[in-house]
Amino acid sequence: MTNNSNRKLVPEAMDSLEKFKYEVASEVGVNLKNGYNGNISARDAGRIGGNMVKKMIQQAENSMINK
Fold first, then answer.
1. Would residue 34 count as lying in a domain?
2. Residues 6+ positions from 28 with CB-CB distance below 8 Å
3. Fewer CB within 10 A of the terminal residue: the chain, N end or C end?
4. 48: how many CB neighbours lie within 10 A of its CB?
């Protein structure tokens, strides 16, 4: 039995996450194109993913403070 950790818990959020990814990529200076981006470096991919996580954590913390 395989466990796929990449499955989306909220599939309806896919479009928003894609938009978010492109926003973060432009903020950190990585040029993404629509479709396949397998040609970007691991460093650039890590910068995008890391900044996405950082922003999501900040948003979650802010929502906890504002409750």
1. no
2. 44, 47, 48, 51
3. N
4. 22
CA distance 65 to 67: 6
**Any domain includes 4:** no
Structure tokens at 12: 């309806």
Of 54, 56, 25, residue with least CA distance to 41: 25
Domain, as residue range, for 44:
12-29+40-65
Q: Report if residue 22 sits inside a domain.
A: yes
In one-letter notation, the amino acid at residue 11 is P
Half-sphere exposure in the Cβ direction for 33 (13 Å, CA): 6
Using the predicted structure, report yes or no on whether residue 5 has a pLDDT greater than 90: no
Per-residue pLDDT band at 1 (split at 50, 70, 90): low
Count other Cβ atoms within 10 Å, centred on residue 52. Answer: 17
